[in-house]
Amino acid sequence: MGVVFFHIVFFKEMEIIWKSHPSMLLARQALILHLQYNTPFTVITSIDNFWGKAMERLHR
């Protein structure tokens, strides 16, 4: 059985949805930190949106 790698992406554009709900923005940040420090997954927060070049490079 092979090793499976996951990339979890939090898009910067989606952060704006939670700006009017500080507790949800805090929950988002807590989830990001939890995943970064407690799981073997790659957590990416630097991609602006799904349609950008950065996302295209990630798929290669």
The computed structural class is mainly alpha
Query: N- to C-terminal separation?
Result: 23 Å
Percentage beta strand: 5-15%
Number of helices: 3
Helix content, binned percent: 40-55%
Structure at a glance:
The protein is mainly alpha-helical and 60 residues long. Helices cover 47% and strands 10% of the residues. Strands 1-2 form a two-stranded parallel ribbon.
Task: Please give a structural write-up.
47% of the residues lie in helices and 10% in strands. With 60 residues, it is mainly α. The chain has a two-stranded parallel ribbon. The chain is flat. The protein starts with 6 loop residues before the first strand and ends with a helix.
Give me some keywords for this one.
60 residues; mainly alpha; 2 strands; 10% strand; flat
Architecture blueprint of SSEs:
Layout (H helix, E strand, L loop, with lengths): L6 E3 L2 H4 L6 H17 L3 E3 L8 H7 L1
Parallel strand pairs: 1-2
